[in-house]
Amino acid sequence: MAEQNPDKGKGNDTTEKQFATKLIHFGAEIDGQTGASSVPIYQASTFHHHDIFNPPTYDYSRSGNPTRQALEDYITLLEGGVRGFAFASGMAAISTAFLLFSTGDHIIVTEDVYGGTYRLLTTVLNRLGIESTFVDMTDFEAVKAALQPNTKAVFMETPSNPTLKITDIGEIAAWAKEHELITLLDNTFMTPYHQRPIELGVDIVLHSATKFLGGHSDVLAGLAVVATESLGRRLKQLQNGLGTVLGTQESWLLIRGMKTLQARMEHSERSARKLAEWLDNNPDVTRVYYPGLANHPRRDVHEKQSKGYGAVVSFDVGDGERAKAVLSRVKLPLVAVSLGAVESILSYPAMMSHAAMPREVRHERGITDGLLRYSVGLEDIDDLIADLEQALKGE
């Protein structure tokens, strides 16, 4: 798979660094005042003005906080953008980004997008007059056909959640630029370790940082990175005006979690590949979704734009009753909403992440009643497989 060019490091040393080094040496890893080996938590809502005629860098924590700024600079470095923003949740980041658009605007969206994004578009933004069309983005002709005179943006999610369809990022981004459309991409599943969309022409990259970036099921957060200063100014105005900011404690927790991102992703991906191959040969499973499988229809596209396959495997056990039986029998993974943690998480999209989608809409997108999504954590993969085997067999 293609290696992506590393970005310039921040801080005093501007030599190019590999990703693992940037995770640890990101510019704020040592406190300049005390030499502390951890970013300080500035638990303050407001800041003293020593000179009223020369306002300080920080005046009120909604508008800016040194701990949150360290995090925002950190994700900017990792994604290779020009400015980053930290939000109270992944949906806060996505919602704020969508408010770049106005009444009468139209957005083309990946059809099997995360259920929360679908809910936002179909129950909130539609009331504000922001229109959306959901398209299978593996079909470039369908994407082009969705263009309308009022189209302003394309929202991608690749791999998609939960059926792991692959969008050709560069192809869509180049086409969007021809039509002066803003491109947004949810990079939660891949993280900047595996996939850096800005390098492929995307304008805004979004994360539910609650997932792989945080990595420990202990923080709720969202992140956004922009490719241009003009988009940065617009998104900053929205973040400040809406007040959708991440708190100081959560910013610090996220910085701590991100330092181990590569180590966690490498371990989980090795295990996920083994799990996907085992499921693909299991007669109790009707279908497996994982970009690392040789039979994945868009594996070549994914390998062109991503460094790895990720740690999420979806599989169909045939019907809802069998799915619920498996969920009741597993002993090791959490049965829960969310993904991307040190512990494995098994979820049921029909009643969890995509419960906001009407049943017929889910089924049109391949999100059946028998579909399960497995986020592989750091446990021994042989133990995870043995546990899932007994759950499938009902022993």
Automatic annotation (TrEMBL):
Cite the Gene3D superfamilies for this sequence: Aspartate Aminotransferase, domain 1, Type I PLP-dependent aspartate aminotransferase-like (Major domain)
Instruction: Output one GO MF annotation.
Output: transaminase activity
The domain of life for this entry's organism is Bacteria
> So what EC number does this one have?
4.4.1.13
- What is the similarity comment for this entry? Belongs to the trans-sulfuration enzymes family.
Keyword terms, alphabetized: Amino-acid biosynthesis, Aminotransferase, Lyase, Methionine biosynthesis, Pyridoxal phosphate, Transferase
| Annotated protein name in UniProt | cysteine-S-conjugate beta-lyase
List required co-factors: pyridoxal 5'-phosphate
Transmembrane annotation, as ranges: none
Q: Which organism is it from?
A: Paenibacillus lignilyticus
User: What enzyme category does the UniProt record give?
Assistant: lyase
Query: Which Pfam families did the record assign?
Result: Cys_Met_Meta_PP
